Amino acid sequence: MCGAALQLFDGTMVQFCPICGRSYAQLSQHLRVYHKVVNVKERKLLLALESGRVKYREGKCSVPGCDKVTTRLDRHIQTHSELSKRARKDAIKRCKKDVILKQLSELRASDPAVPMASRLDLVELEDEPVPLDPEEEEEEAQCPKQLCRRAREEVANLNQQVDTLTTALRDVTRRYRSLKRKFRPSSSAQLTSVTKKLLSALDEPQEGQDTPQDTPQQTPQETTLRYPSPEPSTSQEASEHLPQYPEHVAALNELLEEYKRHQEGSDPSAKLLNNVASKIYRIKNFIGYMADGKTNLSSFLFLEDTQRVRSWVNFLRRAKITETTIQHYVKNAAQFVDYLSQTPPQTSRLSKKAMVSIQREIRTAIKSMRRKVVVHQVAVKTAKEGRLIPKAELLKCRSKARAAIPEILARLRETISSKDQWSFYGHMTAYLASIFGHRGGVYQNMTIEEVEGARKSSTGDSYLINIATHKTNQQFGAAQMSLTGEEYGWMTDFLSMRSLLTGGEEAKYFFFTSKPNFCRNLNAYFQEAWSSMGLTGTPTFTDIRTSISTHAKNTHTADDRHKVAQFMCHDTVTADRFYALNLDVSQATDHRRLFDMLLQGPESSPVKKTPTKKRKASKGSPVKSKSKKRKVDTKDSNEEAPDEEPTEYPQPGTSAESKPRTSSSKLSRRAVIQLSPLNLSPFRGSPKLQKAASLVSKAKRTLLKTTKSHQQ
């Protein structure tokens, strides 16, 4: 009768007495007055047996043939997909009843001062078969009487029949579940059956009325033909039917354990272990969804249902899971399927074609949800705009935290209380976050060794702490914090008293707790310190980081902003995508003025540049060959030589005086050319000559510029 309470039409709750089986609205009073259950603990246990509010997580599975001992019976029983929902509820009730009877027997064995009135635990013990001792079994086996032999043979025959019937029951249950999926009763038929059960439980049928057996009922086939089965459409109904991983399948457990070891590697960190655990949890949900209602799970043929793979994303959305988290679910499932296709277990019966089909469906699901993921990210970034912390608020946080930290340390040295320790954690992280804007994981992973090994400047007034373990250490190396002598003194003062605090002697991390792990509640302590300083809102470390990135974008130049982003262990592209917010109203108004200025003034067209004409060299002159040589000689340099006027050389039999007088620039050009015979050298194969020629051409251009400036 565990959990068999009924509610009447007027709202009154009716409960069944676990001793006499009658229904009462005031069961506690009935047990105390009628059954004389005066012992308070006994009465509480009997009421818990009726209400079903029993802690039954730890124990042995009550399903025949399973007998698994686990710490989560509530989840384990849901993995028995061969049972119907009714059978699972009955198994849970049996587990709860076993727990209550065990507690009643323990209470009876303690010989309470107030005697017990119930005998439920004694009745159950009388009904259970008492096992014989090994000596008695040997005596019975050696008994020469014919009646004993017949009895033993009959017992063996009955045991064999029990095994056969148990196997047949499992097969029938599986067939029943398959037929139930095909012919589901409609919601109206369910309501009719529940109403009849309630009426039959409240009062017996009177004379002249038909009993429920006499009334004609429709078969499941007829009901299904008239009323189609409605599927759960709301997120609430979907969340109530979350997939349960079948823990009783050994092949799945071995494969997941092997995949878990593969993901963790040889030297996993605490963060990697946490990430792998989350990944395994998502993969188990995927397997549970695909294996729901399927049999022969060790063959992995349940993964071949491509239609169910397509509906996996919609199922997660009905469960009110965000788009980015759904993307993690699908990607983890894709990685697991890839691992399964590369190293399939021996029990797998999936063909190569089926594996390719499954992989293609999952990749298509990932591709189809990219747009919604981006829309979700934009919505999250837009929601951050309302949480932008002004500069004045950050400065106020620094000043108040600077004044409060020494007082907290002095009070902590006197009291050695956890309350002052958490207060120091909150104010210290608030002070550091308002300066550097690091992620919360940087402060969590900061070790005592890294603080004590801080690098000191030559002047001795500043210290540099390098935190090796954080989210983006592979791209940006260690996260750094530059502290003054006063700020570093706060840390050393706290470390000097860590041996007096709980867990301080064996602590590894600077923000330690009673356990050897890092402090997981730093964000809560930070928010408490934020509110105690009289600041508005309840921001997180991410809100502080977003605000600092936005202020850096709006204040600093491109070079300074790049330096700030590198110090915060992300680049400017990442900052613009996730942290730096969009333009506010005033900034968008300023940008609009730029568009208004486009339509002001007369119409104008872009100015066309007229190409410069080059002077053609006369036939037979050596200028063409010289220009080619100049291009070859200056090939190594990135600069182009300016245009030069063609230089005429004296012909054989003539002198330079017979020519007309030339300008000083031409004379200087001739002097350079005459001083650089390598420029006209036919030996262009030697790299040394080419390098020397390029140097000479540079010197020549420098001389030309000097001459022009002198003339001007």
Explained architecture:
The chain is mainly alpha-helical. Strands 1-2-3 form a 3-stranded antiparallel sheet, with no helix packed on it. The chain has a 3-stranded antiparallel sheet with strand order 6-7-8. The longest helix has about 35 residues, at about 145-180. The protein has helices at about 25-35, 40-50, 75-80, 85-110, 120-125, 135-140, 145-180, 185-200, 220-225, 235-240, 250-265, 270-290, 305-320, 325-340, 350-370, 370-385, 390-415, 420-435, 440-445, 450, 475, 485-495, 520-530, 540-555, 560-565, 570-580, 585-595, 625-635, 665-675, 685-710; strands at about 5, 15, 25, 60, 70, 455, 460-465, 480-485. Helix 12 packs across helix 14, helix 14 runs antiparallel to helix 15 and helix 18 packs parallel to helix 24 (about 540-555). The chain is extended. The protein is built from 30 helices and 8 strands. Mean pLDDT is about 75; it is low at about 125-130, about 185-190, about 200-240, about 620-660 and about 670-685. Helix content is about 55%, strand content about 5%. Among the domains are: about 5-130, no CATH class; about 235-370, no CATH class; about 415-540, Intergrase catalytic core (hpI Integrase, Chain A); about 625-635 and about 660-710, no CATH class.
Write the layout of secondary structure elements.
Elements: E1 6-7, E2 13-16, E3 23-24, H1 27-33, H2 40-51, E4 59-60, E5 69-70, H3 73-78, H4 85-109, H5 120-127, H6 134-141, H7 146-182, H8 187-202, H9 220-226, H10 235-240, H11 250-264, H12 270-291, H13 306-318, H14 323-342, H15 352-368, H16 370-384, H17 391-415, H18 418-436, H19 440-444, H20 448-452, E6 455-456, E7 462-467, H21 473-476, E8 479-484, H22 485-496, H23 522-532, H24 541-555, H25 558-567, H26 572-579, H27 585-597, H28 623-633, H29 664-675, H30 687-711
Helix pairs in contact: 2-4, 4-5, 11-12, 12-14, 13-15, 14-15, 17-18, 18-23, 18-24, 24-25, 24-26, 29-30
